[in-house]
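Sample intake — Glutamate receptor
Collected from: Urochloa decumbens
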Amino acid sequence: MKSILHILGIFSCLCYCTPGQNVSVGPDVVNIGVLCAFDSTIGRVAKVAIAAAINDINNDSSILSGTKLVAQMQDTNYSGFIGIAQALQFMEKDTVAIIGPQSSVVAHVISHVANELQVPLMSFAATDPTLTSLQYPFFVRTIHSDQFQMASVADLVDYYGWKMVTAVYIDDDYGRNGIATLGDELAKRRLKILYKAAIRPGAKKSEMAAVLVKAAMMESRVFVLHAHDDSGLAVFSLAYNLTMTSGGYVWIATDWLSAVLDSAPRLDSGLLSTMQGVLTLRPHTGNTNMKKTLISQWSTLVKEESGGSGFLLNSFGFYAYDSVWMLAHALDAFFTSGGNISFSPDPRLHAVAGGALNLDALSVFDGGMLLLEKIRKVNFMGAAGPVKLDSDGNLIHPAYDIINIIGSGLRTIGYWSNYSGLSTVSPETLYKKPPNGTIENQKLRAAFWPGDTITTPRGWVFANNGNELRIGVPNRVSYRQFVSADNQTGMVSGFCIDVFAAAINLLPYPVAYRFIPFGNGRENPSYTQLINQIVTDEFDAVVGDVAIVTNRTKVVDFTQPYVGSGLVILTSVKSQGSNGWAFLQPFTIRMWLVTGVFFLIVGTVVWLLEHRINDDFRGPPAKQVITVLWFSFSTLFFAHREDTRSTLGRFVIIIWLFVVLIIQSSYTASLTSILTVQQLTSPIRGIDSLIASDDPIGFQVGSFAESYLVHELGVSPSRLKSLGSPDEYKAALDLGPRKGGVVAIVDERPYVELFLTNHDRFAVVGAEFTKSGWGFAFPRDSQLAVDLSTAILTLSETGDLQRIHDKWLSTAPSSATTDLQPDRLHVYTFSGLFLICGLACVAALAVHACVLVRQYSRHVAAEQSSRSGRRGSIRSFLSFADHREAQYQGKGSSKDPAALAASGSSSGVSSFTSSNASSMSSR
């Protein structure tokens, strides 16, 4: 009867509705399922919060009008098998959605059921990042994924300057996938997980203790604990008993710990004593109206639900509360868009029906896909904050509170958000500003660490596994001042060994080590093979005269260089005395030629400018040529006797005398250097001339110089000759390339400087063509390499490094020069001066030509007026240019030619009209 009345009511409503109007018509009851572990910290809070949400929704007329939510709650007890059975039971009762489960392990299993029966699975606590994969389309996470939590942990590790962590976790889907995500996030910041301490689910305390003891033997002292509430507290209790929560340790617990502490009505002092200085994360929730209302009603809700056993509300309770509201909003949109509750048999289940499983009762939710679509589009302000999913299915605005356990309470030292990283400002405030995730903007308040200290722990110690460091040292047969090993006693000494020992003594922790010589003792070992012993785990480090080169840095880490080094060219040289033609050496041949040409050019230009007005530059042709030559070269000593009277001539002379002054000074300085400094000569001037020749080149056995010459500089291997000792160096250089020796030796500067202390007929030529240094080699990402680098810098700053150097090595003599001959002066050096002088000459000639043409034009015009029919010619112009201006017949006259041209005197005209012969005779 009730069904008939309900149908009539719907029909009457449809009749009175206007066409095109959407009307939300739903059933009286919608069944939803709830899965959680009732006895867990999260489950007991979620159970009360979900019941409160259902009650609030059913009493709210603004949502799901006329439709009531009915929840069927089941206890999974963290069991995937029980979860499957309970999920199947829900589907026998036409359940449209399942809230939960809280366990990621159970969620993985039940998601297959949700996919098959198309029932949305909305979890408020399953944070495993892999659950949002495409494999589980009907899984909806209503809390932040552990992907963001692990990103916040990685930012914490990076913020405090730690390079590696030890991950302690429960080895199930939740722990395993969470730690894998942590490894990915650390790798983005060039950090890493040094050791993974996996604990079996349900392990006994003895098993946990064994795992922790093994983890304590590793270098890292930064522990990240990703566990469940019961196993996590047991780990802290065991770590406390093993003194693993004392000074120097760092513990970062994920959000399970904050849930435990937030839910406890009273914090147990005994429990807190096991985790002093621990950092933990709490999902950040905004200060919303729903949150305030739920908190105010919580004590009453707990009494009604649990019968008086008190527990407080934690962050997971807010997300559980929001999950129900999220489903209610989605159902409301589902019904508004015309969706209805109907189920159809699953043909695949029908094929396996039979027996006592009653699989025929299970059916597929026809509107599951539409409801899932509406869930993903929900957008409202819940108790925890904005409830909205992004395109990847993650809740927007992921953020966490960073909690420090101090004394008998908790202290928030900052926040982490995916928006701006670490900050002491709440995420709600940061969302109002542009994002700023720069390193300078990352800030946290001071934290208290295990051991009751505010000093940030170093985060690692030397591995306490009872083993000594196996340090490989090269068993050299030459240059034993750097490293020498006594094959009889096993003692190792030398400059490099003393530097290493001094640096080790500066470390704040003891390091046990033993030196192991590498090599046959007959020749220097290959340093490339020595470095590879670290890669193959034969050695834990290499100490010696090891050059830091690119290929080696790809496989090992080096400390700060303690000696500067680089490849140089060693060759034999001979003294070169000065000869009778030494005065020509300051200038190159081209420089001498260009300078001489400019002397002639300047002399000629001055003659052209002065010839018509200055008697010093007139006379017979032979005399004029001699005058030009004499005037040109006498300016070199500023001894020219001829006086310049034209303005243009004086301008050119001033510029030229300045050029001569610079050239003369440079010549004098260069010649002085040549005559007073001993000169050394060698056929090799640098690396370019060495490569260009075809002569043999020597290198030290075991050095990287051979590989560098062949692979980097393209030198043929047939040209290279290996040498093993300073005596072989000397003999090969003395013989030379024509008698079976070498033309030069390419080696590292420290060896060459040591060689030159006892050999004065050799020198370094050219510049150092590689820049590197010597360092101690360690495996990749070794923290000992970092601490030793700091110690080496300390040795350098205190002067101890120099004292060790002076103890073993002496200074090379002055013959170790890189400049055998001074550079000769080239034309390019004075190109600017020559250019200025040339431009001055051209400009002066141009102005002089213009004035001369103007004078000639006036002269021709005057002559044509008196003698009609006669025109000027080139010959007459040249004759005019050669003629002495009448106004300058008297010596000492200083009138300007332009002024004379303007006067147009008849005397000048008449003088030019004289015969050509008489004109030439008057010159």
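Post-analysis note: The CA atoms of residues 53 and 919 lie 128 Å apart.
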